[in-house]
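CORE FACILITY INTAKE
Project code: CF-77B
Contact: R.S. (postdoc)
Sample description: multi-component assembly, two entities in total
Requested service: structural model of the whole complex
Turnaround: standard
Below are the sequence entries exactly as provided by the requester. Do not edit them.
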Amino acid sequence: MKKLLFGICPALAILCLLASAALAVTPTAYVKGILDQVIAIQTDPAKSGPEHRKARGQAIREIIKNNFDFDLMAKNSLGSAYGGLSSGQRQEFVTTFSYLFQDSYTRLVLDFLKKETIKYDQERKEGAGARVNTKLVRTNETIPVDYLMRPKGDGWLLYDVIVDGVSILDNYQRQFTQVIRTNGFDFLLKKMKTQKQALQ
Amino acid sequence: MSDNFESSQTCQHLIRGLQRFAWPIIAVALLLAGLSVYYALTHLAFRTNRNDLVASEQKLIARSEQLDKAFGSHDGLMVVAENGHRSNSIRFAEALAQELRRYPKEFPEFFYRLEPDKFKQWALLYLEPKELAKLKASLLENRPVLEGLAARGNLTGYFQVVNGEITRSMIGHLFTEFLEDNKAAETLPDLSFLNATLRQLQQRLEGDRNYVSPLKSFFPGELADLSQEGYLFTENDKYLLFLITPEEDGYATSSRTLALLRQIVDRVKAGFPHLKAGVTGPAALEADEMTGAMTDIALATWLSLMGQMLLLIIFLRSLKRPLLECVVLVTGLCLTFGVATLTVGHLNLLSMVFAPLMLGLTIDYGIHFLCRLEEEQNSSKRISLETLAFSLHRVAPGITYAALAAAFSFLPLVFTGFKGLAEMGQILALGMLIMLVVTLVLLPALVMVSEKCRPGSAPHESHAPRPFLALAWKRPGVIAVLGLGLMALGGLSFTQVKFDLNPLHLQNQNTESVVWEMKLLKDSRYSTAYGALTANSLEELEAKSRKLKEQPTVSHVESALSFLPGGVEAKRAMLQELGPIFSKVEFPGAPLSPSAPEELAEVLGRINFKLSQARNSLENAADSATKTQILEATALLHRVILLLNPQLHPESVAAVADFEKRFCGDLKNMWDLLKENLLAAPPSLQDLPPEVKKRFVSSQGELLIRVFPSLDIWEHEPLEKFVHDLKKVDPEAVGDPVLLHHFNLAFRNACLWAAGIALAAIAVMLLLLFRSLKLTLLALLPLFVGTGWTLNMMWLLDLPFNQANVLFLPLILGEGIEFGIIILVRWQMEESARAITLPASTAKGVALAALTTTLGFGSLMISGHQGVFSLGLLATVGSLSVLLASLSVLPAFLRLLEKSYKETIPVFPQLEVLGRRLTQLLGWKTAR
């Protein structure tokens, strides 16, 4: 029994150490980690050129897929309309939204993030989550890009990116609200599904 | 055989009178001629207006004069500039205005621009509905930009707002484009305002202190920059119009003023090498026509005189007698000028040609006398008094009948009711009679004095005359039939010859005023001639304008309404929707906090980042307006960001501050203008500027409508349609096209009527004098045959009648009759002449008369004025045709009728009695 306890305790201790090590990833480090992966893909000589854009895109998409909280984003993008949906509708919406967002964000990354230098500015708490301010730097130009995230398990998940003061989530919310007001949720979902089919 | 001329008491008295009074006659004649010339030079006026050709009591003229009085007679002259470049034309207009201000007496008024400042408060109402809708949409769409700009109140703030809009557009396009209905929607908003601002900023940073408002790209150009507005351009913007009202004081003044204006225009044009400009307008067209015609006619008169003298010298083989005839002609012409000044007082566009016409016609009288004198002189070295008297006695009847016939041919013109023709007819009729008297009195006196005629030792013996061409006239029938056949063909030709009623075709086509009138008409559907209607109220004005615009012959309509905005209610409703924006947005006149160059550069850098990305993604796309804008924007941003570096460009701080101040002020002014527009009540007639009101609103409140044709109204058929459409809307419509239409038809009909009446009058006169229908018809034969041949030539050469050469008809009457009378009188009076049909001296006289007349008319062909030229051509062809007919067909008929002459029974016995009494009164006997 003692031997077992002595065996379990170190294991637990190691696990705790490991867990605390995971919890110790700062928001900035988290964002940096993602951006470093992305830049590595974008600057990989083996994957450079327009002929490899699709391959780069797929790799980047994978990173996006693993690091964004689509449930939260989908819910926030619909605003108050989300509460009126059935679970089936919600599920369908989240799936479709997730697909479309990944596609769009992949294109954003492919077009805007190439050989820029990224400066990491401040990091601060924002409600339950965090906000990391960065700057994309070219020779004479900088673009501020802020990342909003919330804790998920030991890590973080992004739920919004603010490019030069314009929130992607706000954009979705504004556009979706307008469409739902004029044509209804079903119309919106139909449009999204049509777009998804076109992209597949 | 000698005729018993001594029994003629009249001739005896004449000879005695000449003997005693030759010198006094010459002296008095020359004195009267001198006085007449002086009187004419000081009192004779020139009237160039076509209205002066129509009787003033006519309803149409009265109405025109009424309108002139009510609205003033404006804009007689027009300077037209061909608009290669709008701002260049505007600078030319301003330079011209500056020059014209130095001559206030000659150019008391000119109108070339409506001051836009006076209309600023209604600027939005003057926009086209489409433009206003576009502005409204632009303001609503850019409301966030405007609100952001107003809140931040400086240049950096403006660019931050723009940056935000660009970012939002890009994000929206990337993530939610699929929701947009218009798939072709651009990724970015319209960058024209951004580019315009960057351009101005760049220029300022490079040291250029001139500021051009970039707001043109945001607001309609007419609002953003009023410095280029208000100028009078044609609808298609091709020509700039500069209207001038010159001082009016008759032709002499207007031609001087026109010449001065052209000098000024040339002087100003020298500063604009690529600009084309010229002077036209109703006053210029009239003055040019008159000046051109007068110059040509003066030259034609001298050429005619010299040419005729040369012919006389050649034919008469003498210098003395042609000189005597020259003196007679000049004296007669001077006296006619004096009488014309006394009776009429002025010359018009028609009557000014009387001098060469008179010379051409009346030289014949002297020629017939001199030719007969030559025949009677035979081989004698000196002329006796008896020979002189005998020649005068023999030739006087023919000359008198010819002059009377010529006077009769012009007299009916006096009764046409057409002032222009009436005055011409009056002058020519009087001129014929004056020349007759001068020829019969002065010429013998001059011959007596120059040839030193003395009474002969024996009575004058007349010898048998030599025949013309010594022909036996073997087949007179063939010639007669041929002649009549061609005459009949002439009747057919008359139906085929057209009548060209286009008055511009009469003018010298190279005249500046004609060239520019045609350009305006062809390129801009704008004519200096327009119809004029009136209305008594705004409602009536609107109704008439509407109806006029529906007419297919109407190009556009000008009235006070043209200067008031249309569709006001609908536009005000549109403007009301903008109320909330204007109430919430307020621009500071000066920057709230000055922008630092580094701060500005940072914002511009962010914009450039995104636009560079957009440019890269559009590289393979087809050309589009967006791509062009993006390319320009990125180039400008790149340059401006460099210039904003204070280390490299220390002056950038001051430059930015200066530009920012002007930009903010500009924006505030524009915004305040728009707000003012929103609140202003629509303009009314009272708000129109004085130069508009005086042209379109009378002191009694009557409103003028100017109607411009869409067709070439200088051609008769389009003119007729246009006038018909005008009258449909208002039967009392007047204006140049209406007058022209009336003038064209009235003139043509008057000439034809006068010719018909003259022919009838001459025929009655001949019937009275010859007392024989057969002889009357014979006298008319050269006229009919010659005219018929002339018409054949016109048909062959496709030469139309026009308003000028239609005068040929009364002219040819006088001349054609004259040759017939001269030949026939001698044939009737003298058996010796009948024996050979046509004596050589008579034929010589007729030929010389015809050739001098041809020369007189032919000299008109030197004129650049196409109307005068065509009259000269037609009259030349006509006189040669009449000559040929006189020397061929008439003698052929005389030959045929010689044997039956004695058996002729008078058709009208009463006329025979009257005729006999007239002959006895004149003191001539009928030859046996």
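Facility notes:
- Chain A touches chain B at residues 100-101, 104-105, 107-108, 111-112, 136, 138, 140-143, 163-166, 168, 171-172, 175-176, 179, 188, 191-192, 194-195, 198 (CB under 8 Å).
- The two ends of chain A are 58 Å apart (CA to CA).
Invoice: internal transfer
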